[in-house]
Design a protein that fits this description.
- It comes from Rhodococcoides kyotonense.
- This protein is an alpha+beta fold and 245 residues long.
- The protein has 2 domains: 2-187, Bira Bifunctional Protein, Domain 2 (BirA Bifunctional Protein, domain 2, 2-Layer Sandwich), CATH 3.30.930; 194-244, Roll (SH3 type barrels).
- The protein has helices at 8-14, 67-84, 152-172, 178-187, 241-244, and strands spanning 2-5, 24-30, 48-56, 88-91, 95-98, 101-112, 118-126, 194-199, 203-212, 218-222, 228-231, 235-238.
- The strands form 2 sheets. A 7-stranded mixed beta sheet has the order 1-2-3-7-6-5-4, with helices on both faces.
- A hairpin with a 2-residue loop joins β5 (95-98) and β6 (101-112).
- α2 crosses α4.
Length: 245
């Protein structure tokens, strides 16, 4: 654990070759934290759980490495449900929600290519942030959701155990994604919802999320064509009924 760093992900990425599998780095504060699409991620010191884990994958097909952030989302949801007694769920691909509000984000970055790829997965979890400290009105924290536990060390240990168990299970399956995909779908609040998906080049899809496929893509039935569209990368917004009409 360190008091402050620019980014726990960046620190592990810079030293990935020399670090052991499952090395974790936790910071009390990040000066340059970032989420997906390089969006800033910050908060008052000691108000969040800020951590990164280096995971090495001997013999894996690089094509399935994109499942690691989704796997991490499963582990975080299960940890929060178990130790914090909150109704956590996933918004595709890997935002963690409580009652529709974002409590945690996940960012995975490939550190080492080759026969034993390595990926750094970072987690930012709002623990004790007040309403005024939250970056956006659609965010929340464990304290605001009256979690049974808001001790960061307890939550940290539960998440690390969960990630380890999920990776071990995946490895023992020969990196098969079938069981992992099933567990993800069970925890994904996006499936079954009306959504808007923002795509590159200012394109968007309006429709209903109907599945998460074996490649981890969200499948949306397009309102215009009625056809299912598999989306590998995009920003998903859950639409309220009034927006969907």
């Amino acid at each position: 654990m360190v008091d402050e760093t620019g980014s726990t992900n960046a620190d592990l990425l810079a030293n990935a070759d020399s670090l052991a599998d499952r090395t974790a780095l936790v910071a009390e504060h990040q000066a340059s934290g970032r989420g997906r699409h390089s969006r800033p991620f910050s908060g008052p010191p000691r108000s969040q759980l800020l951590m990164s884990v280096l995971v090495k994958f001997p013999g894996i097909d690089p094509a399935v490495l994109g499942w690691l952030p989704l796997l991490t989302g499963v582990a975080v949801v299960d940890a929060l449900r178990t130790v914090a007694a909150v109704d956590a769920a996933l918004k595709w691909p890997n935002d963690v929600l409580i009652e529709g509000r974002k409590v945690a984000g996940i960012l995975a970055e490939v550190a080492v290519h080759g026969q034993t790829p390595a990926v750094v997965v970072g987690i930012g979890l709002n623990v004790s942030m007040t309403r005024d400290e939250l970056p956006v009105p659609t965010a929340t924290s464990l304290v605001l959701e009256n979690a049974a536990v808001s001790d960061r060390d307890t939550v940290l240990r539960a998440i690390l155990r969960g990630i380890g168990a999920e990776v071990d299970s995946w490895k023992n399956s020969g990196w098969n994604t079938e069981s992992l995909a099933s567990r993800y779908r069970e925890r994904c609040d996006t499936v079954g919802r009306r959504v808007r998906v923002e795509l590159p080049a200012d394109k968007q899809i309006l429709g209903t999320a109907v599945d998460v496929d074996q490649q981890g893509r969200i499948v949306v039935r397009d309102d215009e064509t009625g056809e299912p569209i598999a989306v590998a990368a995009g920003d998903v917004t859950h639409l309220r009924a009034i927006e969907a009409d």
